[in-house]
Amino acid sequence: MATGLTELSARLKKYTAEEIVLASDNFSWQLRSESVGIWSSAYKGYIQNDTVAIKFLNSSEERQFESRVKSLSLIRHPHLLAMMGFCSELKCFVYEYIEDSCSLLKVVKQNLLWPIRIRIARDICSALCYIKTAREGPIAPDYLNASNILIDSNRNAKVNVVMKRCHKVYYNPDFGWDVKTFGYVILSLLTGIPGNCVSYFYVRWCVGLPHTLDKTAGQWPMDLAEKLMNLCRRCVDCNPRDDFRKKYIMVVIVKEMNEITEMANGIVGGHDGIVAGGRAVRRDQDSDIPRQFYCPIYKEVMSNPYVAADGFSYELQGIEKWLQSHDTSPMTNLKLKDKVLTPNGTLKLLIRDWCRERSIPYPGL
C-alpha cells in the first residue's frame, strides 16, 4: 500500500503514526469530535501551525483506504472540505479544520435568513457540479445529507467528500441519487426541517404551499421561494436510472441555482449589499444606519447585542470569541474587570424596529 501511495506525496502530506498521535494528544477525549457516515472517530488536532481534523475509517471500510486517498487527492474546490494528507499506518485522513463551524443539520434549526439559505444551496450545488463533472470521473459524496455539510462562521458551505458507497436511505449505485439528495437539502433550507427528517412523500405534499416555509428565515420573496421549490421537486422526482445518466445534467441544475442566487442578490442589493447577523441590508441604506447598531469587532449591524464590562455593546459571537483569548477591551485595550456579558435588549429592539420600518428581514419578525 505504501508503494501505491508514494506518487501522491506531491499533492498530499503523508503523516507518520507518531505525528498523528502527537497531533491528537494521544487521541485525547477532549479533542474528539462528532463523526458520521463511514468515520469511526474524528479528532481535532494540531500539526505545526495548522489546526486539522483527523478522521478514522470504520473497520469495514479500511480495505478501500488506498483507493479513497487516490480519488480525494485529485479534487480541489472552495466548497469541498480540503484533504491535507493521510496516514497509511493508522488508516486515517487529515482534513482542514473549519473553525466555529457546525453541520447544516444544526444550522437549519437557527434563525438563518433566506438570502443566506439560498447562498448555502448555491455553494452545495457548485460543489456537486464539480465532482459530477470532474475530469478524473465523477466522485460521489459519501452519505450526502445535512450532517456532512459544514457551515463556517461566514455562512459558507463545505461538503465533506469521500467516495461513492452504499449507506442508509439516501444511497443507490446509480449516478443521480446525489441529485435527489440535493433536493432534500433544498427542502431542509426552505422549511427548517432537519435533512434527516424529510421524506419523498412530504416533498410531494408541501412543494408549492407557502405555509411550509420556515418563518425564522424572514419574509421569503414568493417568486424566489417558488423557483427554489420547483427545483427541489425536480431533483427529488428525478429517476436516477433514466434521467441522470448524463453527468452534465448537473450543469443545468447549477445554472438554475445561480440564476436564483442572482435574483436574491438583486433583491437585497447584490454585491453592493451588506449581510450582518444573517440579515441583508441594501447599500443605499448604509448611510442611514445609526453607528451604535454596528458591532465594533465585526463592523456589521448586530443581531444579538451584548454589553461587556467596558460598557460597549458587541455581537455576542464576536465578543465571546474575543474573550477566549483576551482579557482586555476591544475598544479601549484596557483590562476588563470581568468577562460577564449582559444582553442589550433595548438596543436589539431598536435595531429590530429600524429593520421593520425599512422592510429588511430580521430574525424573529
TrEMBL record:
InterPro entries: Kinase-like_dom_sf (IPR011009), Ser-Thr/Tyr_kinase_cat_dom (IPR001245), U-box_ubiquitin_ligases (IPR051348), Ubox_domain (IPR003613), Znf_RING/FYVE/PHD (IPR013083). Pathway: Protein modification; protein ubiquitination. Pfam families: PK_Tyr_Ser-Thr (PF07714), U-box (PF04564). Residues 288-361 form the U-box domain. Its EC number is 2.3.2.27. One of its GO terms (molecular function) is ubiquitin protein ligase activity. SMART domains: Ubox. The keyword RNA-binding does not apply. This is RING-type E3 ubiquitin transferase. The lineage of its organism: Eukaryota, Viridiplantae, Streptophyta, Embryophyta, Tracheophyta.
